[in-house]
Design a protein that fits this description.
The chain has about 160 residues and is α/β, with parallel strands linked by helices. About 10% of the residues have low confidence. The longest helix has about 35 residues. Strands 1-2-3 form a three-stranded parallel β-sheet, with helices on one face. The chain folds into two domains: about 60 residues; about 100 residues, no CATH class. The protein contains five helices and three strands, in the order αβααβαβα.
Length: about 160
């Protein structure tokens, strides 16, 4: 029985890891689709690469992407910043986040809002409703929500996260 549980946990970990890798792959493909034009003919001469990294003027375009670790908000951290606002927490890295073309973050908690209880007790998390705007205010453009805490506040927490 113990072996069966261990196997089930390993299957879940592998499924989660595969899902995260798929999301990252899709994010990279979306960036390529937005920033790189691939509509012209491809060069056929030996040694020439694809023109997908060149804009219409023929100049190479560069894209800067920043990826953060988990954004994991819990009650003690939020209390440190007062009133559930953590604007100042990211202020030191604002220049870095603003300078790139795309910032990707993993939102490790649902944004269920205050009505579902802001906690971090017993590894069950929930962030204030203002969190989504805080991320946007700090130039975080893409947020992954696929993680083991996505359903910490049940269906309503998932529905409130936007």
């Amino acid at each position: 029985m113990k072996h069966k549980r261990t196997r089930l946990r390993m299957d879940r970990v592998l499924l989660l890891a595969g899902s995260v890798l798929l999301l990252l792959f899709l994010a990279v493909m979306a960036v390529r689709a937005v920033f790189f034009s691939d509509t012209g003919p491809r060069p056929t001469a030996a040694g020439q690469g694809s023109d997908s990294t060149r804009n219409q003027a023929g100049k190479t375009q560069r894209v800067s992407v920043t990826a953060t670790g988990d954004i994991l908000l819990e009650e003690p951290l939020l209390n440190t910043f007062g009133s559930g606002s953590w604007q100042d927490c990211l202020a030191d890295i604002d220049p870095l986040l603003a300078a790139d073309d795309l910032t990707i973050a993993n939102m490790e908690v649902p944004i269920g809002g205050e009505e579902l209880g802001i906690t971090g007790i017993d590894y069950s998390f929930n962030a204030p409703a203002r969190t989504a705007q805080n991320l946007k205010d700090h130039s975080i453009e893409f947020v992954s929500l696929a993680n083991n805490h996505a359903a910490d506040r049940g269906t309503q927490g998932i529905l409130n996260t936007h």
